[in-house]
Amino acid sequence: MKRVIFSLMAMVAMVSAAYAQNSLSAELAYKVKNEGFAKSKIEEMAQFMTDDMGPRLAASQLKLRAEKMVIEYLKEMGLSNPRAEYAFDFAKGGWDNEMNYVAMTAPYYTSFAGNPKAWSGSTNGLVKGEVVLIEAQSVADLDKYKGKLAGKIVLMPVTQTYQMNFNPLATRFTEEELEVLAQDPRPTSNSRIPSISRAASMASRELQTAITNMLKEEKPVAIISGGGTFNVAPSRGVQYKVGDPEPICEVMLPIEDHGRMARMIAKGEKVEMELNIKNTFTNNQRINNVIAEIPGTDPKLKNEIVLIGAHFDSWHGGTGGADNASGCIVMMEAMRIIKSLGIQPKRTIRLALWGGEEQGLYGSRGYANINLYDSAKGKKLDGYDNFALYLNMDNGSGRFRGIYLEENDQAVPFFETWKKHIETLGFKTLSLRRTGSTDHVVFNGLGLPAYQFIQDELEYGRTYHTVMDTYERLSLEDLKVDAVIAAWIALSAAMDEDRIPTKPGLPAPATR
Length: 512
Ligand SMILES: [Zn+2]
Fold this sequence. Notes:
The protein is an alpha/beta fold. It has two domains: about 25-90 and about 285-495, 3-Layer(aba) Sandwich (Aminopeptidase), CATH 3.40.630; about 100-175 and about 205-280, Glucose Oxidase, domain 1, CATH 3.50.30.30. It is about 35% helix and about 20% strand. The protein has 14 helices and 20 strands. The chain has helices at about 1-20, 25-40, 40-50, 60-75, 175-180, 195-220, 255-265, 320-340, 360-370, 380-385, 410-420, 440-445, 460-465, 475-495, and strands spanning about 80-90, 95-105, 110, 115, 125-135, 155, 170, 220-225, 250-255, 270-280, 285-295, 305-310, 350-355, 375, 380, 385-390, 400-405, 430, 450-455, 455-460. It has an eight-stranded mixed sheet, with helices on both faces. Helix 2 (about 25-40) runs antiparallel to helix 14, helix 3 packs across helix 8 and helix 8 (about 320-340) crosses helix 14 (about 475-495). It is elongated and about 75 Å long. The structure holds zinc ion.
């Protein structure tokens, strides 16, 4: 009997020895979870990143202020060498809104929660005027406005009407939906835009350009557009580069306020508005990333980098709560968890809070161009061979349910091992699908292992890039789970003997 038990134990030991090569211990899993759940700083960080910092539009004065604030915060956290690193020259320069008042004054008074378009100009103090609605199906229809818009407030055409929505605002993935994500998506269908809608969208773009050109000539007092859903003004920007004349003042209104005035004018009523908008332009063209580390300690592996990050810039309307304070908070808390447990990772774990994501992934592109791959010369740089992993977060405040592995089959066995102690938190689904539109695509495009999480959608579609994207959009409980998962995967990758191979054939040789 004794012998049988002994050999069973030996078998268990052999099995765990095979796992021990890559999977971190249950003891460490307990410590990471305890630090993340019992001693969480998520709430403090959430207020710091939203209420305290305010909006963080690329290159704005508020963004520069926020960079200084977060660098101090990371220093206090004990991370190594927190710093702002130059990434990219941004043609638009800085822009900050300093006064914003928008109201309808006739046929009766109503103030509106408008949001000035970024990089648009100011009004000359408080201005009042008649509102003229642009109604045009084609470029020829614009003739009737020529010479008649100076001194007027122009209401752009209604391009979108309010649709009642019978779906819930926040959803969690069902088991069935996760099963679908877990299936290999290939071969993917090449989804082409049907030619009829392409023709229609070209015509509408042509009309849009003609309206923009006409308004540049006519010089109205201000241009008002509508958008968004449910009485929320979206944040948008206008064309501008440093040195251009200051553009005309433009304001976004909620779809309902825009729609109300458009309907009244179309019926023949006289509508008047008053505005007082002050915007400041600065010549700062630097897009910075904020970087900090927990240095690696293994003599052979310490120069390899496990990168975790999120974009730090936001649109200017709200305080960039879900987009993307949530991502920054999670990655900062993951660093805090690892640091406060006194773990000495083999590889260096680097935090990157990217700048200028909303205007074109400028922070991460700049980082890649300076450290990983010189795209102009088509040449790999030192950082390329030392790049072990990148984890990105940019889909709001929802819980991590798994990860998108960007068609890299070679990543699957690693995540199968690494997820062992976090499946109980709901991190189960490994999807080979691609997901786009944020910073990891820069690194993935070079063949490097760079991934973004599968996240539950919590009011994201309705609120991001609007004045409503604030602290209230953050689910602190979900963010705590996300930080523990991010810390665990970063640690697993930093401790693993092996690392995920790059995609064969990438980066593609430069074509000349
Ligand atoms: Zn974002």
